[in-house]
Amino acid sequence: MLTTTPPPTQPNHSALPRLFDTVADTINLAGGLPDPQLFPSSDLSDAMRSMLRLGGRTLLQYSTYRVPDALAAAIAGAMEFRGAQTDPAQLIPTGGSQNGLLTIALAFAGGGATVLCETPIYPGAAAAFRTAGLHTTAIESDGDGPSPESIRTAAADLRDQGRTPVLLYTNPTFHNPTGRSLSATRRGEIVEAAAAAGLTVIEDDPYALLSFPGVTIDAATAPTLRSLAPERVIHLGTFSKILAPGLRCGWIESPAALADELRTVAEITTLSPAPLSQAAIGRYYAKHGWHDLVDAFRTAYARRAALMDAELSARLDRGEWQWQSPRGGFYIWLRRRDGQSTTPVVEQAAAQGVSVVGGTHFSLANEHADGIRLSFSHVPDGSVVDAVSRFAAGLTAADTPNTPQVSRAAS
């Protein structure tokens, strides 16, 4: 049976968890934050100084809503790095993927429009859809990801109910929060199912370049959905995960038939892209390329993921918890085998001095309350063991009846 969630009467801006807060004596495993130690701060500073000297009056002014040639080259380089091509004519600048999600949602909203969503879902996507006025419907997944049959069935059921399914949302590579990547076969099946159901696909792909050493993500093993159906897939990209999120720069690559509409909505929501950030990214790429920086991110995250995975295996009962060892991206997704809510674990972990995110935040209708997401990307290597130790202590406390809520700092 379909679980369709209507948009709130008033936009629910409190739906997103506060992932980036800094709390004293707390290790943050909640936010999907890149490692700031790897940001090329000096190189970006040099690029910005140079660009300001050359064209400060232009770069500090409002700008037209287009992707400059140097930024288009940086986007093309990033996509080539993961085995895909771009069409510069269909690129639309965004203030990161979140701005792109809201742009797409606003462009499709109205008339009972519904977006079919894989779950667990990135909370920012669900919030963007609901804020724009879209209905959301969860589709079923199996061990390989979103089920093609569920896509077809859900779309047909919605039409029978008088609703209008218009979009399918998926995060196919190093998914947030589960970390899984779709096989090449499943990607093709999803695109075919979307076509049969008359759906436009949103391919949210921020982590695709962050495969760990030895893991291949390319046109053969993990083609972009857009490469399989460019007339049907809207691809979302961002520099937040492979360069620096503070630049707030990403892109939409749109089907030709939708490009003008999406560009208009993007301009309305943003007015002007960030010309200084765009110029700095273009100059950084022209001088350095992506290989060395992305390789540094991959190596650091692989090391931390392996360490966290090993610590979890040593401290958690595999009979009670299940998870997959990460192959890329930022996250480990834990599930309670008994299906119980993890809210007490999240609360007790916070009392022990480690922040994590409960599965309700990745649900449309509380269907993943038994999950917990841990982010390994931001925590320093030397803190991983302490972080998992605190988390395990919180788990023990949550499973102990009548455990008082005493903060670690106050104990």
Provide a compact summary of the structure.
The chain is of the alpha/beta class. It is built from twelve helices and 16 strands. It has helices at residues 41-59, 69-81, 97-108, 123-132, 148-160, 184-197, 225-228, 256-270, 275-288, 291-315, 343-352, 384-398, and strands at 4-5, 27-28, 91-94, 113-118, 135-139, 141-142, 145-146, 164-170, 200-204, 233-238, 250-253, 321-322, 331-336, 354-355, 357-358, 371-375.
Number of helices: 12
* CATH architecture descriptor of the largest domain: 3-Layer(aba) Sandwich
CATH class of the largest domain: Alpha Beta
Per DSSP, what share of the residues sits in E-state strands of 2 or more residues? 15-25%
What profile does the largest beta sheet have?
8 strands, mixed
- What is Rg? 21 Å
Oligomer: single chain
CATH superfamily of the largest domain: Type I PLP-dependent aspartate aminotransferase-like (Major domain)
Q: Which parts are unreliable, with pLDDT below 50 for 5 consecutive residues or more?
A: 9-15
Distance between the termini: 48 Å
Counting helices, strands and paired strands, the structural category is alpha/beta
What's the mean pLDDT score? 93
Q: From N to C, what is the helix and strand string?
A: EEHHEHEHEEEHEHEHEEHHHEEHEEEH
What is the overall silhouette?
globular
Indicate the percent of residues in helices. 25-40%
Q: How many beta-strand runs?
A: 16
Lateral arrangement of strands in the main beta sheet: 1-5-4-8-9-10-11-3
Number of domains: 2
